[in-house]
Design a protein that fits this description.
The chain is mainly alpha-helical and about 750 residues long. It is about 55% helix and about 5% strand. It has a five-stranded parallel β-sheet with strand order 2-3-4-1-5, sandwiched between helices. Strands 6-8-7 form a three-stranded antiparallel β-sheet. Strand 3, helix 5 and strand 4 form a beta-alpha-beta unit. Helix 10 crosses helix 11, helix 16 runs parallel beside helix 19 and helix 19 crosses helix 22.
């Protein structure tokens, strides 16, 4: 699927409603066709964050390793759950254990923050397993849309692989279960909640308590590393007791002391004792000891760092890059970020592209947000949120321009004190041989949780235009990376916002592009209803071209609903109206859709005529991708007509072009046509080879249950071992490789 009519990208389509189209059946995201559709080898993922120093956890580590030994001996996967208070060191213990396993698990390491305490709610398992699949080498365009299919593929890929998985900050056992790998892999889960339910899955559950006083003193000494603990042992013990043995609180208090080498531990004990007396007013979920340490660290920050801390507490997502901080505070943000990091208030997040990314511990984020509510005025908080939202809007727009340089976007509005020139630019330049478009897509996907958080927050924060603007700017990501849940949700929220504003143009864009997502998720009736609403709106506004462009959309929806005659009526109207209104290319795509229906119905002469006419117009319009699809359809029609030499020429040319476009689904159609051609020539062995390759390619793009794949498998099964090459074969019936999905080109 691609979007805008004026794009120079060979796979883009034109003439759509405000630029959105469906390339039904084409798949993007780096599909590699080789032989029978084998995937390109990718290196194992190594995603675990680095380890940090831990103390007094030897018993827990021994218990975890003993559990792994028993599971391995029994031939089972290893599952362990580590629970405990916020700040007690659950993740640190899990990382210390899992990092020791790397030599024994060459299959890689997967990591996911499940966000039980995240501001936008726990992570969706479907989204997480999709990320895992991509990390394991599944191209984005081949990730199945449904959770069940994703989980099945994930377990198939991990069944024979030795890898470790860390599922951090889990909310429930139900959230965890779809993410458990198969085979003899090792999975660690961390959660504030005890998870006895995972025992049913063979899990070993351990609960971390606070550090002993001696262990806390050891951690404090390691943090300071300057002899003060040895010189003031009783004061050090008193400080650890005030931190309640929570490693996070000890490290934060130690970081404050480390920044003041002349300060005695006694001064920190006195300050922390006084801080405990004022906790109730701003307590964080009962974690008073962490709160006390955070308050003291905050008070020691330079003013610019303190303000950045408060403002970042308003950030709606879990992670953010340094450019967000620069957008909020200007160039002073660089030094302020260093101060926050040095104070242990920010955690580095590993970033493959080399960019700086940070996150708060969830308790630290809550602390920063509470201070923002206390010390920043309502107007200041609103401006900060707008700046964050417009930061993501502006950079998503930059990414959109890289991916689809000719796309006509909806107007981007920056107002209410937000100067577009002050918004810092994110770095999404190509790395490791990427194209610029792939790098921009990677940035959009990495920032998708933040983009979705802005979309959800836009109306409540009084900036509804941000919902549809961010959704529109993010559009290139959804179809290319198969992010169906976010596709539908973002457009639903964007539509509500556009309607709330009374913006008819934005409403139509949200309806049409959102309806395409409905078709991709199988909700064809709802998609049709949305297209009909858009058509009515265009008609009311007197936009004849906009209305005509909905005809192919509606035809596609009827085709998906199995209403072929109604679909053909819409496609015929589009083929007549769009050229008259000046959109020749969209009219050609409508003729392609008519040819597709005729092919499926066995009306080969009509299919050949319409497909050839479409091909000529598409070539003249500079659209080689869709011209290749039309050539493939012409070739399949010629097989049915018995024009075998022409069929071979058309199909061979189409296959070469579609493979160059990495359009796996369409290439599989053409392979089916070549198989039928071989059958007509009595070349059964060659036909079987083409069918095998087609079936494999359908599977590689996640379409093994499509009607086309089922038809190809049936023909393959029907072919007996060759008796003699060149023996006659019965003429084929209706082409099983025909595309029943059609395409919206108008």
């Amino acid at each position: 699927m691609r979007g805008h009519g004026n794009s120079t990208n060979a796979n883009d389509l034109s003439g759509t409603v405000h630029g959105f189209v469906v390339q039904a059946g084409s798949v993007h995201g780096g599909i590699h066709v080789s032989g029978a559709g084998a995937r390109e080898e990718v290196p194992p993922p190594w995603q675990l964050p680095p380890s940090v120093r831990i103390t007094d956890r030897a018993d827990e580590l021994r218990a975890l390793e003993a559990h792994r030994g028993r599971a391995t001996e029994d031939g089972h996967p290893t599952l362990a759950a580590v629970s405990g208070l916020g700040g007690v060191g659950k993740t640190a213990v899990a990382l210390a254990w899992l990092h020791t396993l790397r030599p024994h698990f060459p299959g890689g390491q997967l990591y996911a923050d499940l966000g039980a305490q995240a501001p936008d709610g726990p992570a969706d398992p479907g989204e997480v397993v999709a990320r895992f699949l991509r990390a394991l080498g599944v191209p984005s365009g081949q990730v199945p849309p449904a959770l069940g299919e994703r989980v099945a593929l994930y377990r198939s890929l991990t069944a024979g692989r030795q890898l470790v998985v860390l599922l951090d900050d889990a909310a429930t056992a139900a959230q965890v279960r779809p993410l458990l790998p198969a085979g003899r892999c090792v999975t660690a889960v961390t959660s504030r909640r005890r998870m006895p339910g995972l025992s049913l899955d063979g899990g070993h559950v351990i609960h971390l308590g606070p550090l002993s006083t001696d262990a806390g003193v050891e951690l404090l000494d390691a943090t300071l590393a300057d002899g003060r603990v040895a010189a003031q042992p009783e004061e050090a013990r008193a400080l650890v007791l005030l931190c309640a043995g929570l490693p996070l609180a000890v490290r934060i208090a130690g970081a404050r002391l480390a920044a003041r080498p002349r300060q005695r531990i006694t001064a920190m004990v006195r300050a922390l004792s006084e801080e405990h007396e004022r906790l109730e007013a701003l307590a964080i979920e009962g974690d008073h000891d962490v709160r006390a340490a955070l308050d003291l660290s905050y008070r020691g920050l330079p003013p610019t760092a303190a303000r950045l801390y408060r403002l970042l507490g308003l950030h709606p997502g879990r992670e953010f890059g340094a450019p967000v901080a620069r957008t909020l505070l200007g160039e002073d943000a660089v030094e302020a970020l260093d101060a926050l990091h040095d104070a242990n208030l920010l955690v580095d997040v590993a970033e493959a592209s080399g960019g700086e990314r940070y996150r708060f511990h969830d308790l630290v984020r809550l602390h920063a947000a509470a201070l923002a509510a206390q010390d920043e005025s309502g107007d200041e908080r609103a401006v900060a949120l707008l700046r964050i939202g417009h930061h993501y809007l502006a950079n998503a727009g930059r990414a959109e321009e890289v991916i689809e340089p000719g796309r006509a976007s909806l107007e981007r509005e920056f107002g209410r004190g937000v100067d577009p020139e002050s918004i810092a630019e994110e770095d999404f330049g190509p790395v490791d041989g990427q194209t610029a478009a792939d790098a921009a897509l990677d940035w959009l996907e990495r920032e998708l949780p933040n983009l979705m958080a802005v979309v959800r927050l836009a109306r409540p924060m009084g900036a509804p235009e941000l919902a549809w603007q961010v959704t529109d700017a993010s559009w290139p990501l959804f179809p290319r990376r198969g992010l169906y849940r976010e596709w539908v949700e973002a457009h639903r929220e964007g539509l509500l916002a556009a309607e709330e504003e009374g913006n008819g143009e934005a409403s139509c864009r949200m309806l049409t592009s959102g309806a395409l997502g409905k078709l991709e998720t199988g909700d064809h009736a709802e998609g049709l209803a949305m297209f009909e609403r858009a058509a009515a709106s265009f008609q009311e506004r007197g936009d004849a071209l906009g209305h005509a462009r909905t005809l192919n959309y509606r035809g596609l929806a009827h085709q998906r609903l199995g209403q072929q005659d109604r679909a053909a009526d819409y496609f015929a109207r589009a083929a007549a109206e769009l050229p008259a209104l000046g959109d020749l290319r969209a009219g050609a795509l409508a003729r392609f859709n008519l040819a597709d229906i005729a092919l499926a119905q066995g009306r080969y002469e009509i299919a050949a005529v319409e497909a050839e006419a479409a091909r000529l117009t598409l070539e003249a319009a500079g659209d080689p991708y869709n011209a290749a699809r039309a050539a493939g359809l012409t070739g399949r029609a010629c097989v049915g007509l018995g024009r075998l030499d022409r069929a071979e020429a058309e199909l061979s040319a189409a296959l070469s072009a579609l493979r160059a476009e990495t359009a796996g689904f369409e290439a599989a159609h053409v392979l089916g046509g070549l198989a039928r051609l071989s059958e007509r020539r009595g070349q059964r062995q060659q036909a079987r080879q083409y069918y095998r390759e087609a079936v494999s390619l359908y599977a590689s793009v996640g379409r093994s249950e499509s009607a086309e794949a089922v038809g190809a498998r049936a023909r393959l099964d029907a072919l007996e071992p060759p008796e003699a090459e060149g023996s006659p074969s019965a003429p084929p019936g209706p082409d099983p490789s025909g595309d029943d999905r059609g395409e919206a080109g108008a």
